[in-house]
Inverse folding.
């Protein structure tokens, strides 16, 4: 019997909350998107969350209070979804909530002789469960890290469910604040490959504010980037960063490709025209995606189709650049296959929540580096 599940996602772009109600069959397969909603954050809240997620030193009280606040905002999103869909909350099997990442440190660091790695997503699942009266699964990433994994990416399990084809190798690309890719070989005996390729929208969003003023929160349709010319010398210099050559499994975040990285690029490219400088910074996103496929995907698994989702699918400069860089790959939006490009990750966490309650492992060793497949998340009772 099919069940209704809710998925909640707030990504590294820090722009708001995506919420969905989906129908999932008893085997854990996605059937349909019933309802979706996007709740934008106010500018003042975005600024506060940006400071919280980027500061090296964090006020403990602020962190804890924002954990509560985000939990309440996620719960509000659920209420609006239920109101919009006219579905009774008693019919909802579970909520799967990713939360909002304020820190992701997957590399091992010794403290008192113990190797540590850590990730933190705020938006307390207990608050969501209490406010909505619905069983909630949250904090998905830490179980994978406890097993030696990177804690990311987690959506590849869902990508295979949604997009596997017997006749073609498929790649699923999500361009959020950070870009990540899943390679799904048509030969099922081959391992799934997935990793963060590098910056997505976030670096471009930071750069557009720095170069063209705070009134611009993003490069709408890639319009600024299209006006400039990519400087190949600067591109080679910034692509020389060690992350791009690190072998998967690997993951990253705005802690790495954030203000410090942007300051380095602006310093190296200070002699360039602002439009050329910005175009080069923006081009790093599609360039690093294409190069990652070339460097890390074996010939037998090389994608014939690239399915793109996330906010970056609306950036014409990104999409046109990808088509030029990967001329032999059919590049399409997930919308064309019936999966909303804006809500794919929220759909994914609804499925992961369902998996947790049915004791189905969702993390994949070949993707995250965990020691064995893990059942993810913490359960909050209503």
């Amino acid at each position: 019997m099919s069940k209704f599940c809710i998925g909640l996602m707030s990504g590294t772009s820090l722009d708001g909350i995506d919420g969905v109600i989906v129908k999932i069959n008893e085997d854990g397969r996605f059937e349909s998107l019933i309802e979706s909603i996007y709740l934008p954050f106010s500018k003042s809240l975005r600024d506060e969350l940006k400071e919280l997620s980027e500061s090296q030193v964090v006020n403990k009280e602020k962190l804890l209070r924002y954990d509560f606040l985000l939990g309440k905002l996620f719960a509000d999103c659920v209420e609006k979804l239920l109101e919009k869909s006219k579905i009774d909350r008693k019919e909802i099997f579970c909520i799967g909530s990713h939360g909002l990442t304020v820190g992701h440190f997957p590399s091992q660091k010794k403290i008192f002789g113990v190797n540590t790695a850590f990730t933190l997503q705020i938006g307390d699942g207990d608050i969501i469960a209490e406010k909505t009266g619905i069983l909630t699964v949250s904090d998905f990433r830490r179980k994978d890290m406890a097993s030696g994994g990177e804690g990311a990416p987690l959506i590849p399990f869902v990508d295979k469910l949604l997009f596997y084809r017997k006749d073609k190798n498929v790649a699923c690309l999500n361009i959020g604040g950070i870009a990540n890719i899943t390679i799904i070989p048509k030969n099922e005996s081959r391992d799934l490959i997935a990793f963060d390729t590098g910056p997505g929208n976030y670096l471009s969003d930071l750069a557009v504010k720095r170069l063209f003023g705070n009134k611009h929160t993003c490069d709408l349709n890639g319009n600024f980037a299209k006006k400039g010319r990519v400087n190949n010398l600067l591109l080679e210099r910034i692509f020389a960063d060690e992350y791009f050559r690190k072998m998967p499994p690997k993951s990253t975040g705005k802690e790495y490709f954030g203000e410090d990285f942007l300051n380095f690029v602006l310093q190296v490219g200070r002699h360039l025209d602002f439009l050329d400088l910005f175009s080069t910074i923006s081009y790093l996103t599609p360039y690093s995606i294409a190069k990652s496929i070339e460097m890390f995907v074996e010939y037998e698994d090389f994608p014939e189709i690239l399915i793109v989702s996330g906010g970056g699918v609306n950036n014409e400069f990104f999409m046109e650049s990808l088509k030029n860089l990967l001329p032999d790959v059919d590049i399409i939006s997930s919308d064309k296959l019936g999966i909303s490009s804006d809500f794919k990750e929220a759909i994914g966490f609804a499925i992961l929540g369902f998996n947790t309650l049915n004791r189905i492992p969702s993390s994949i060793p070949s993707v995250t580096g965990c020691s064995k497949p893990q059942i993810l998340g913490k359960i909050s009772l209503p």
User: Anything to note?
Assistant: The chain is about 40% helix and 25% strand.
